[in-house]
Design brief:
The protein is of the alpha+beta class and 276 residues long.
């Protein structure tokens, strides 16, 4: 941190994120200051749980006190709404009064920030839950860049009485609300892996709710891959490309993906031929 505080940015007006964990739970603090470096020295003494910090400011130090108070309030509210990390902030400070133009600028700033943060592995603002859709809307999902639709997929593990449905949306694999998953993570020796921790996080956040001998998805939840979704459903590491099946044809996700790519290439060739 000593090297970081030698930079010019910590002397600017801005907001900052303290990141760490307590008892295995992701923990964070969101603050603002017109001298972030000075504030961090105080936090280093008073808060012993954090191990990394993100400075957020602008080139030319163009943020003023009202700007950063607005950003702090909005980021705290967003973090609480998404719930991927526990906050050390006691309350959400009120949003300060800004001009209509400044509000527009700060909202654009936040939109850009929430795009940048995942690139530096800060995922506390990534929203994975999705609105529950009507049954007629989840029969098929539109594939980005394609003129055809993707099917629903099903994963069944009869030994444990599990059945889950999922669909693709904008490149993410969304498990539907009402799907059943293992009550506890059963992958021996893999509890500390990413998928094991994800299973525990979804239980903690209420996305997975205990129901008898299983857990049930209370909301649609978007996973980064079919294997991540299959692992959480089964409570163990899993190859989702073969465990998820096309709900209509019975083919594996991998088989469907190969066929889908071939169909897309054929459509592209027809389009090129038509233009010629």
């Amino acid at each position: 941190m000593g090297d970081a505080l030698k930079r010019s940015e910590p002397k600017c007006t801005g907001v900052y994120l303290l990141l760490g964990d307590q008892d295995g739970t992701p923990f964070a603090y969101i603050g603002e200051s017109d001298d972030v470096g000075g504030r961090l020295k105080s936090h280093d003494v008073k808060k012993d749980w954090w191990n990394s910090v993100v400075f957020i400011t602008t080139a030319g130090n163009k943020l003023n006190k009202a700007h950063v108070r607005y950003l702090e309030s909005r980021l705290i509210a967003e973090a609480k709404r998404i719930g991927r990390a526990e906050l050390d902030n006691g309350t959400t400070p009120p949003v300060p009064s800004l001009s209509e133009a400044d509000v527009a600028k700060m909202e654009a700033f936040i939109e850009n920030l929430l795009t940048v943060l995942p690139a530096v592995r800060v995922d506390m603002f990534i929203e994975r839950t999705r609105p529950t859709m009507k049954s007629t809307e989840v029969g098929a999902a539109q594939v980005t860049g394609s003129s055809h639709t993707a099917p629903r997929f099903v994963l069944e593990t009869k030994k444990h009485g599990l059945r889950a449905h999922a669909f693709l949306e904008n490149g993410e694999f969304v498990v539907e609300a009402g799907s059943l998953a293992r009550l506890n993570w059963e992958g021996r020796g893999s509890e500390a892996t990413g998928y094991g921790q994800l299973h525990a996080e979804l239980k903690r956040s209420g996305v997975l709710k205990p129901e008898g001998q299983q857990s049930i998805f209370t909301e649609n939840y978007a996973f980064k891959s079919p294997s991540a979704a299959a692992a959480v459903v089964n409570g163990r590491p899993a190859n989702g490309t073969i465990e998820w099946k096309n709900d209509r044809t019975g083919e594996t996700y991998k088989e469907w993906e190969v066929r889908d790519l071939e169909a897309g290439e054929q459509l592209q060739r027809l389009d090129v031929g038509g233009e010629i």
